């Protein structure tokens, strides 16, 4: 979450039916890799299209293309209960507390 990069998923040549089937698969926890899907990581992204197309980020509409998205360091502040403060993700190099 704090690596400073956007996780970008690119859908190429998906019909509406294929996109709906893929979305249902994700919602059911069955994320299957498809040839029409590629993933990238980036600090910024500029999206254009031949015609204005509705633009979503994290499932929320944010207007129409062209659009630019970039990481803003420190923009997200998260509050957690004090008893959770000792917990860190295992990738951070510490073991989670046993009694959460």
Features:
100 residues, alpha+beta, two-stranded antiparallel ribbon
Which spans have pLDDT < 50 for at least 5 consecutive residues?
92-100
Rg (C-alpha, Å): 18 Å
Write out the strand line-up for the largest beta sheet, numbering strands in chain order.
1-2
Q: Calculate the terminal CA-CA distance, rounded to whole Å.
A: 21 Å
Number of domains: 1
User: Structural class of the secondary structure composition?
Assistant: alpha+beta
The main sheet comes to: 2 strands, antiparallel
**What general outline do the C-alpha atoms trace?**
extended
Task: Describe the protein's architecture and organization.
The protein has one domain. It is 12% helix and 29% strand. The chain contains one helix and six strands, in the order E-H-E-E-E-E-E. Strands 1-2 form a two-stranded antiparallel ribbon. Strands 3-6 form a two-stranded antiparallel ribbon. Strands 4-5 form a two-stranded antiparallel ribbon. The longest helix is centred in the first third of the chain and has 12 residues, at 16-27. Mean pLDDT is 76; it is low at 92-100.
């Amino acid at each position: 979450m704090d690596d400073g990069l956007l996780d970008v998923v690119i859908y190429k040549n998906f019909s509406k039916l294929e996109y709906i089937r893929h979305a249902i698969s994700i919602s059911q926890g069955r994320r299957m890799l498809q040839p029409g899907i590629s993933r990238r990581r980036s600090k910024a992204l500029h999206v254009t299209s031949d015609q204005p197309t509705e633009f979503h980020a994290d499932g929320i509409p944010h207007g129409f293309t062209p659009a630019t998205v970039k990481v803003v360091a420190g923009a997200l502040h998260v509050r957690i209960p004090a008893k959770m403060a000792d917990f860190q993700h295992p990738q951070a190099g510490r073991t989670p507390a046993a009694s959460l």
